[in-house]
Amino acid sequence: MKTAPTATRALCVLAALGLAAGCDFLSTEPKGVLTTENFFKTPDQAVAATNATYNMLREWQVHVFSWIGLTDIVSDDATKGSTPGDASFLGDLDNLTFDPGNLAFADPWAGYYKGVYRANVAIRHIPDVPMDATLKARLIGENKFLRAYYYFFLARAFGGVPLVTQPLTPDQFIQPRATADEVYALIEQDLQDASAVLPTKLQYAAADVGRATKGAAQGFLAEVYLYRKDYAHALAYADSVIGQPGYGLFSDYATLFTDAGENSSESVFEVEAAVTPGGGKSPDQGGANIQYAEVQGVRGTPNIGWGFNTPSPSLEAAYEPGDPRLVTTILYPWELLPDGSGLLVYLNPSMLNNRYNQKAFMSPSNVGGAFNSGINLRRLRYADLLLIGAEAAYQTGAVAKAQNYLNLVRARARGTRARTVLGPGRLTAMDGGTGKAPIKALTRRAFRKGSLNGKPSLVRSDPDVESCAARRRGGRKRPRTNGRARRSDRG
Questions:
Q1: How many angstroms separate the CA atoms of 38 and 189, rounded?
Q2: Mean per-residue pLDDT for 13-29?
Q3: Cα–Cα 20 to 30 A to 327, which of 26, 207, 273, 435?
Q4: Which pLDDT belongs to residue 365?
Q5: Is residue 229 one of the residues assigned to a domain?
Q6: How many CB atoms are located within 10 Å of the residue 44 CB?
Q7: What pLDDT is stored for residue 456 in this prediction?
């Protein structure tokens, strides 16, 4: 979906619509001004409005700085990184000393609700556009998928939040807080509606690669139901994608998070990005690039980033000796950059935790540097669905299926290396035969080794996580916020 010009036009459209929404004091129709009444007239305009909803995915407030704080840094998988005094609010997340005024909560709240707003505008007005019925249904489905995506993060980060399903006028801006159950009900309904009308991955034309698919909607339903501990539905939706045409584990994990692995067989849903000609622009200025790589790049020599979100020693220790995923995940000082440039990463004495997230690497030779990164952000992979399916299968008593799904991920990770295949005896022996802890431990370990991509391995609601956090705090009680910010966001 590398269509920067379209995204630019769409962004301008939605900005204009937002500004015009409160101009009811005009007694005559404004000339040369886009409003919701005079914009949604053609199929191209319906597509442009939908592209604007996607465009929010690359925004700073949605998938960049605060987002890595609320996903990776606050987990045990990463530390703040950078220098001690830089972005201290992320350090507060890392140390679990944050309070309700932390910037990491305000930024995503604003960004994700902007995404909800754009989806609501499109869902409200596209039905009135004279156009092909199939395309109309698809565009509405895409916007419902994206609205569910935005609300899924908000629900995991804050619990119950205001539930807004239509564009609001200024006198409606104060909304009550819905319950978490009500928010999840909308998420599930939106994803089910999207699944019913969206094309499969292989039915999209090449120019539309990256748009939400039927498999993406079903995959996120599997993840949503897993979070809700509705294991039967989680397994059913994971199974609806696993083994379907167009999906499979990418053979080379070493290149999975590079350009070569974009929109591959392993891709279920990615945030699409592209290098913007001329050196890069922010999304609100029409850029197709994303700053996700820049904030995590090598800081010092070579100087290609800000050095945040550094892999933790705990994550490093989670890899078994010889696991090839380690060298693909962590970039150490005194290593050569993985782009073949021959440049050496020097130790930066000012840095905390000298190491970098290699999954966010962007070569310094890129026009515009890491700021102008065009590397897609993988939000749901086939491996994730195998692990979701494994956990759900085990929780519902399908031990053989759980074993099979988990071993598929382990086998791909190791390639031709000798490996331990997990059988039923190993699964049950790990918890004394109770049948509950093994898959939790094994899938968490597997999730963890695929982390540092906004999918930390630990979930705050897990009692084991709470005790782990208490150990990190030296027994101090976790600070609470009115929004009940989640300790980790696995997806």
A1: 30
A2: 47
A3: 273
A4: 87
A5: no
A6: 12
A7: 55
Residue 383 lies in a domain: no
Largest Cα–Cα distance of the chain, in whole Å? 76
Spatial distance between the Cα atoms of 97 and 134, rounded to a whole number of angstroms: 51
- 3-state SS, residue 59: coil
Residue 264 has pLDDT above 50, yes or no: yes
pTM: 0.84
Domain that holds residue 117: 1-198+459-491
Residue 81, Ramachandran bin (φ over 0: left; ψ between -120 and 50: alpha; else beta): left
- What CATH number does the domain containing 79 carry? 1.25.40.390
Which tokens sit at 104? 């990491």
Please state, as a whole number, how many other Cβ atoms lie within 10 Å of the Cβ of residue 20: 18
Which pLDDT value is given to residue 453?
Answer: 73
- In a domain, residue 281? The reply is no
Number of domains in the chain: 1
**Better-scored residue on pLDDT, 482 or 136:** 136
pLDDT in tens, 385-408: 999 999 999 999 999 999 999 999
Q: What angle do CA 159, 452, 145 make, to 5 degrees?
A: 50
Tell me the C-alpha distance between 354 and 334, whole Å.
Answer: 11
Kind and range of the H or E run holding 101: none
Establish if 305 belongs to a structural domain: no
Q: What is the dihedral of CA 190, 195, 200, 205, to 10 degrees?
A: -40
